[in-house]
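Q: My labmate handed me this sequence with no annotations at all. I'd like to see what the chain might look like in three dimensions before we decide whether it's worth expressing. Could you predict it?
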Amino acid sequence: MTTFSRLKMTAIRQTSSLVRLSRSACKVSLLLAISTSVAWAELTLKDAHVRAMPPGQPVTAAFLTLMNTGKQEIVLESASSDISHHSEFHSHTMDEKGVMRMREETQISIPAGQSFVFKPGHHHIMLMGLKKNLVVGDNVQLTLTDSSGQQHVFDLPVQSLHSVGQD
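A: Here is what I predict for the chain of 167 residues:
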């Protein structure tokens, strides 16, 4: 075998090794993408609705239960909606004089395997600067963004204040 043939065979072996390495890197990238997609699907929703308000009211609230079915805590940092100019997490607390006060919460933490409830008189999501009057039966798109930047998008039905038993 000539020197040229030996060099050619070595180059072919090295190229084959690079191709195998490249294929392995692609497989790892694909697995990471799949596992990341699965991690993003760890927040589920139940008992959700947006409260219908009389025409002309500039604010309403969203109520729901979020379940973190994943293995890591999810920290929600913001909310937005297709029907409001601004959205915030709020809570009600009793002050030292026994007066109920509402305050903005900068984040909501949901530990792995646990739920967080937004309900009347407690935590809720304020939808402020409504762009239109809400009609019972419509759906509102609510987007919750977590600390990793992942957006969790949900459709919530608009329900009458009187049709919701918990209100």
